[in-house]
Amino acid sequence: GDRCGKAIVAGRARASGVDEDSGTTVKTRLTISYAEPSELQMILGKYSSDIDAYDVLALEPLGAKAFASACANKHADVVSVRARGRLAYKFTASAMKTALDNKIF
């Protein structure tokens, strides 16, 4: 809710662009962690203009339903998972195929 809005606005301080000396392109990324698909839909609806300011949208699902929704989301560029510890859900072949079909990595 409100915590998410503050995080989105605070995260916009760094602008994307090209470093002329090295030719490196700098992109901004927003990662949204969520447990339920309805929570993500609320965030995407309420903060859409703030989210659009980022170059890359990463979704970090915290459960099986959230993982399936992240893979099917048309706005996401990346599905991010925490590397520490064991996940509370398993990757499914159908969700992974959906993500690849949607060009989500």
From TrEMBL:
One of its GO terms (biological process) is tRNA processing. It comes from the Eukaryota. Keywords: tRNA processing. Pfam families: RNase_P_p30 (PF01876). InterPro entries: Pol/histidinol_Pase-like, RNase_P_p30. This is Uncharacterized protein.
